[in-house]
Amino acid sequence: MSSSSTTMDPPVHLSLPRTPPAPAPGCGVCAALARQRAAAYGAGDLSAVSDCNVELAAHPKTHPGGR
Q: What is the pTM of this model?
């Protein structure tokens, strides 16, 4: 017969959320994503907010002289 013991896992430590990415100055795509993000946040659609943040974070890499 095997004996099993149950124990609790140690607590999970989460970090604070990252600062949302800022739109690149003068970029229409970034400005549109920032507007979509604001609208989604206002509607309480945090999934769409997250999607916009991902796109904004990735988009400046395609700008000339990207970051």
A: 0.69
